[in-house]
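By way of example, we now present a protein record of this kind:
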Amino acid sequence: MIPHLALSHLRCPTTGGVLEWMPTEQLSAVHREIAESSLVNRSGDLVTEQPSAMLVCKAARLAYPVLRGIPLLTTGEAIDLGQLAEAS
């Protein structure tokens, strides 16, 4: 995981907003959606790799995956949180 001090310096590339760790129960929902092949990123690509964590920008309603300890903070890799609400 990213140390708290380092996380405080990371910002959403879309809005410049604060990033927070995604709660465990929401991350579980992301994992289910990926397993069902029903989650796409903002580039329109099907998400196939299970992230170990996600960083969330509440202002933008976007989540950025953390793969192998590396946060993918690019707009194209972001997942619109509205997809999770639609699936529920």
Notes: The beta strands are 20-21, 53-57, 62-67, 70-71, 79-80. The helical segments are 4-7, 24-35, 82-87. The CA atoms of residues 32 and 74 lie 23 Å apart. The radius of gyration is 12 Å.
